[in-house]
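Researcher: Going back to the complex we discussed earlier. I've cleaned up the inputs and rechecked each line, so this should be the final set. Can you rerun the prediction on the complete assembly and write out the structure?
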Amino acid sequence: MAGCTGATGGGGGGGGGIDTVKVGVITSLSGPFAVFGQGELDGARLAKQDLEEELGVTVEIETGDSETNPDVGLERMKRLVTRDEVDVTLGGVSSAMGLKVGAWASDNGVPYVTMGASNAMSGSACAENMYAVYPSNTMLANGIGNKMSEVADSWYLFYSDYTWGQTAYQTVKGILEANGKTVVGADATPFPNDDFTSYLNAANDSEAEGLGLLVAGLDLRLATKQLLNNGMGDMKTAMHQLEDIVYWGLSKEAASVMDAGGQAWTPALDTGQEFKERVAAEAEASPFVRHYMGYTAMDQLVRAAVRAESTAAEDIRAEMEGHEVDSPVNDIKGGDLYWRECDHQLVQDVYLVEGADTGSMTDEPYRQWFDLLESQAGDDVVDSCEASNCSF
Amino acid sequence: VSTPAGRSVSQLQRAAAETSPAWLAVGLGVLALLTLSFATQPGLFVDNAVGGFVYGMILVMIALGLSLILGLMGVVNFAHGALFMLGAYFAFQVVSILGLSFWVALVVAPLLVGVVSLVVELLILRRLYGEGPIIGLLATFGVTLMLEELTRAVWGNAPLDFAVPAVLSAPTDLGVTTVSTFRLFTVAVTVVTVVLVYLLITRTSFGLTVRAGVQDREMTTFLGANLPVRFTAMFFLGSVIAGLGGVLRGAEVGMDTGMAQEFIILAFIVVVVGGVGSLFGSVLSGIVIGESVFLTGVVLDSLASVTGLPWIAIDGISGLVPYLVMIVVLLVRPRGFFGVEGFLE
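Model: Rerun complete. Updated structure for the full complex:
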């Protein structure tokens, strides 16, 4: 089994039958989402250093700027594969891009690790050579739903008006209602949105105790800021897929109002200290989930190639399916991680955080504005294989 | 002598007289829906009516400079969004990096944006006057990309924010609803700016020669007006207003490099719906679009509640509203509320 051989953590030291792995990183390197893409690239570069040192293999990185446009991303992917002849690929901020480039890569025998979180990645649109490193939307929503039930009895929910937001809304609403809580209202908000005031008025008018902000990317920042500007800071707030960087452009007060945030990785973990410090020192950035994603995707693809002594898609697939992660990723992430064979989802712990008191937030050597509330085991929050609806 | 405002009022009266019974029925229908909505959800209706007005005035602030440059100079200035963004980043530099007050940034940042616009106008746009609108649009689109990348190189990719005075941070209780104080401040700045621009255009010899130059460039030049200098000054003014809008937006919700394109389409919609060349039209258009965005959801919710037909309350409709308003207005009045015949024809 691939999982068994993988337990050596790329034990084919010296690279076995391969000396070089050429990796294509396709993500948003310009535009408003560039900050997310840069995090992925920086994380991948750190993994490259570690892999070369540990395994003696040469890792070459070629980059392609998707400009957060799936069509551009696909064009970059084709160029990286056909002109630059990369062996494996990873990256992408949005699920839409992941789905588009992932389908092409998989069909053309190129392994691809996506960093989108939509269920479709490891569900209805799963592909035999595509792997989902980000916990699925359902995993994160399952993680936050029960916590929201503890925080408040009645909720108003905003959700980004596309598949990702709709899935999160249905999951969170279902959990809240199953726990006897009330969803007094909900609004699908455009993505991206330029103003949340009308929705905030509706939430305020509903007299709900809590506001679930199931909105993507920088919209969370806008919604939070306008929530405070409108004097609604006393309302309980929750978000299922929180990425720290969204708040770093705001005041610490804005971050402190978050009562429950779901995260795939957080700098508040007491593991991965060296990784966090390296991000701060070498990437000159504060570590957040995209650094972890970039690192993990690079680490896992290259190790799979080394174990397989091949960069052929079918060989890497054989190594990835069912593989239990045994690498520096374990220290960075904490807990057990494994690639589920039925849908290529990396099953891993998810975390619940809350905004720290502003006085205890730190900025040096990197920003840490959230406190860890609890960890939830990946197997407890992931959907069953049957429910994931994946068929290769 | 007729003033633009006077002409706008007479145009409004003429438009009302020409309105067909069908459109009159539509108007009455909208009024009935608003009344129904107020009756069923009075609290939320008032909240959103006030919020829609404030949002509309913010749109006016963002679109005003664009309206000036497009209306008076005929330049489809796609770089307006980038100048708007620069206003926010310059303010960040003044407040967060240099440690000066927000009030200093409110003056200095727009002026710096104006200086940038002078470079753009002198080096690029001045060579393009008289060319078709598409040439100016492409050139200013290129300027947008350059300014975005420059901003990214200087200030980085991460979203940024800067502090505003405490007096503007707290919400204001208006009795019927609570509104962000900063938004009210934005409305006040917008009103003052609109009035000053109106006076400049209609009550000064500078404004008179600019308007004359727009109508007959050759004759105005022949009579001794230095039109290139006046057009440069107008571009500077429009850009300063864009920068001012950027300072206000950045202070309210923070900034990122996506700002340049976040509002540019909406600003064009405001100008087109208001009618190219009409300041008054842009103000009315901004308010109409603002109110439409904020009230459509409430109205549909009320209608769904009263009729028992939940499908009427379409989720996510507000994002489409500006485009629907534009379609409806252009169907009735192809030149917008107070558009000037001749432009782009």
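Model: Worth noting: Chain A touches chain B through 38 residues (CB under 8 Å).
Researcher: Good, that matches what I expected from the previous run.
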